[in-house]
Amino acid sequence: xxxxxxxxxxxxxxxxxxxxxxxxxxxxxxxxxxxxxxxxxxxxxxxxxxxxxxxxxxxxxxxxxxxxxxxxxxxxxxxxxxxxxxxxxxxxxxxxxxxxxxxxxxxxxxxxxxxxxxxxxxxxxxxxxxx
Length: 131
Ligand code: ZN
Fold this sequence. Notes:
The chain contains three helices and eight strands. The chain has about 130 residues and is α+β, with helices and mostly antiparallel strands. It has one domain (about 1-130): YjbQ-like (Jelly Rolls, Sandwich). A hairpin with a 2-residue loop joins β5 and β6 (about 100-105). The mean pLDDT is about 95. The structure holds zinc ion.
């Protein structure tokens, strides 16, 4: 199961919690785990609070994770080494428990696709395992 997200900026956070919940509902799984995965080398996934100021803070913090002013070998090929390195540091998958048919995310936890080389069309894969 998967869904697509169209991003609009070079670096941005997209809340995909609703889409992930819809995939879990479709699966009918009540007890298990959801693996959320992006098959991309310049995107990532995080869980955190969806609050406007915090999203702005996280976008700024993510932008500062990897130095931009360094010479990277990969930039000779397609000029996006920073995007690859940041994706590698943040990670491209999440594993979330499902209990009683619901994601066990805390009240202030949402799932975000992190675009690092947008705008692009991204795919998010959701594998639901359980019974
Ligand atoms: Zn590249």
